Fold this sequence. Notes:
Radius of gyration: 15 Å
Number of domains: 1
Largest sheet: 4 strands, antiparallel
Helix content: 25-40%
CATH class: Alpha Beta
Number of strands: 4
Bound molecules: guanosine-5'-triphosphate, magnesium ion
Amino acid sequence: MERTLILLKPDAVERRLCGRIMARIEDRGFxxxxxxMLKVTPELSRQHYAEHxxxxxxxLLESFITSGPIIALCVEGPEAVRVMRDMMGKxxxxxxxxxxxxxxxxxxxxxxxIHGSDSIESAAREIAIYFKPEELIATTSxxxxxxxxxxxxx
Length: 154
Ligand code: GTP
Ligand code: MG
């Protein structure tokens, strides 16, 4: 089954929105293979956002993502990477459709509440940054036949 790395960013924690965002993820039918609260260090930020380190907005991004605790989630389910990106909305909350997480809870481009891996390759890289293998727990739920058993699952 496909896994993706989701971060509930410092604004989501500060604004007490984590429970509501996690409920949306579970309501959709996904499950959590790993859950962790932590503070991102500048080193971790540079590792995670390696593709953005040389961009002009990186210093602002680093000071935001290290400004308070985050919640890291390993989310599992069919096409988890793509479906979670759809649920999140666009990078800029103001461009995000109502019904998406960013479209319902935000108005900022930088403080956009949630991170989700943008490809299966990124997901594998990012999950390994935030979770040790033994921190990820594979479970099978009795609900799965009702949620997606007849689909082709990866
Ligand atoms: P992530 O899931 O967090 O990676 O967001 P994304 O994939 O929708 O956007 P992207 O990877 O392009 O940018 C990473 C993060 O940097 C965004 O989520 C924003 O928090 C921030 N960001 C992106 N573009 C800008 C910008 O132009 N200015 C500022 N200040 N922040 C930006
Ligand atoms: Mg990104």
